[in-house]
Amino acid sequence: MNSKKDEILQRQSQLSPAKQALLQQRLSGKFKIETHSLQSIPRRSNAGPAPVSFAQQRLWFLHQLEPESVCYNIPVSVRLTGAIDAAALEQTFNEIVRRHEILRTTFKIVDGKPVQDIAPALAMKLPVVNLRQLPETARDREVQRLVTEDCQQLFDLAAGPLMRSKLLQLGDQEHLLLFVIHHIISDGWSAGVLIREIATLYNAFSQNQPSPLPELPIQYADFAIWQRQWLQGEILETQLAYWKQQLGSTPPILELPTDRPRSATQTTRSAKQLLALSPALTEALNTLSQQEGVTLFMTLLAAFKALLFRYKGQEDIVVGSPIANRNRAETEGLIGFLVNTLVLRTNLSGNPTFREILQRVRELCLGAYAHQDLPFEKLVQEMQPERNLGHPLLFPVWFVLQNSPVPALKLPGVTLTLSELDIGEARNDLKLDLTETPEGIKGFFEYKIDLFEAATIARMAEMFELLLNRVVEQPGIQLNVLAETLAVAEKQQQLSKEKEFQEARRQKLGNIQRKVVTNTIQEIS
Q1: Residues 306-314: what's their mean pLDDT?
Q2: What is the spatial distance between Cα 464 and Cα 518, in angstroms, rounded to a whole number?
């Protein structure tokens, strides 16, 4: 009995934050299953060009505005440990391209609109770069150069292909498989699909066996056609009505205090500040979440919004957050741009306790998840917010929780590990990206370096950890008290670092003086 319960708990923990929240709704009887959500997505009958999805349409438009930007390049790195059969790996790569039409897709204009142009076949070579003879230091530099070069290379959406790959040989038993994919044909979920298919197919092909993967039930073009046909009429009006009521005519832009003035046009250069929470704090956050009837995502989002309140004092806070948008069985195994963006607006007025903030965030998230089918692009089109080239659209701050990282996959003689690469460019002013791991919550603050100093974000990361420790100890703490606590702690931290700096400066000056005196004595003598 206990083993069955453990299995259920394990499966529940592997659900995305959105699906965990919807599970809570269904179990509490507050969720009505709409019949449209159970309808399957049909295969298209026409094999010619297909309409783009709403998300692709907006990204295509942004690409026309900023054709030199690499913000939408998605790098995927797979470390391979063990003896590698390069021929089997190239065969694996081409089978994935065959299986997923989206990887053979380019974009052309028909009647003034972009459409998906799907090649019937595409044979791609896997370039191999041999770095085995280089000394370790030189090899690491060359790997970084090649990775940066690949990540910074532009894609031509009309010519394609929109994915490129390269195999770096680091040693006899060490390789790095590098993919760079344009966001218009992929998303974060797709990276997990990609590495799992690589593992399965390589395992088969390296042993001269056929592919064990079943054919996909639908292709991405089928989803795009279905989305445009389904999202209209009453369904569209219901979705729009919720978001209009939730966001109002013009959601307030969160104006974070920056270290440097904002330029007239958006900049994208970015850096990251790493963050690692202890297993004990992670466990305490999960316990608090269970006690309050919320998910870990909701708890961390509530804490992040409390942190933003401390820096700005703004009570009406809008944060963007991605959602996988894979709530139909047919889409779970697809590579493609399905991710949607939720605009999460929370009112923190009335000096609520953190426990009260949790409940406000809970209601916000449950409503958002129940209306997640409205593409962000349709919301922008409907609301027509005023465009300011110096600000991101609708929200400058982003929050992400990855609760199901792709594990290392072990095959006979080879281990595949997915690793994240940084292209050094960001679309939002500030992003908090967290992942729940067995070693605790880990992640980073990503920020635009043209707006923020590294020291500012480092303090913000420390204040976030302090805030989390405080709310798990005292969830009844009021927002103003929590903000004042952080302000005092940050001031003390700055004074302490200033003292350390002055002491180090005095020691340095003292060492210089002693050296001058010593040299003078030597000259005299």
Answers
A1: 90
A2: 48
Residue 133 DSSP label: T
Q: Does an H or E element contain 151, and which?
A: helix 136-152
- Alpha-carbon distance of 444 to 272, in angstroms, equals 6
DSSP state of 126: -
Measured CA to CA, the distance from residue 333 to residue 192 in angstroms comes to 9
Helices (H) and strands (E) in the chain, counts: 14, 15
Residue 488 CB neighbour total at 10 angstroms: 10
HSE at residue 108, side-chain half, CA atoms within 13 A, is 10
> Mind listing the pLDDT tens digit for each residue in 151-188?
889 999 999 899 999 999 999 899 999 999 999 999 98
Give the model's pLDDT for residue 35: 38
Q: What number is the average pLDDT over the span 376-404?
A: 76
Cα 202 from Cα 212, distance rounded (Å): 11
**168: left (phi > 0), else alpha (psi -120 to 50), else beta?**
beta
Q: How many CB atoms lie within 10 A of CB 468?
A: 23
The string of DSSP letters for 56-116 reads HHHHHHHHHH-TT--TTEEEEEEEEEE---HHHHHHHHHHHHHH-GGGGEEEEEETTEEEE
3-state secondary structure (DSSP) of residue 268: coil
- Going by their DSSP bridges, the two strands 430-437 and 397-402 should be labelled as parallel
How many Cβ atoms are within 10 Å of 270's Cβ, its own excluded?
Answer: 23
Q: Which residue has the tokens 């990887």?
A: 103
Pull the structure tokens for residue 392. 């991101």
Q: In sequence order, what are the beta bridge partners of 275?
A: 443
pTM score, whole prediction? 0.83
pLDDT at residue 33, rounded to an integer = 39
The least confident of 18-22, 88-92, 273-277, 334-338 is 18-22
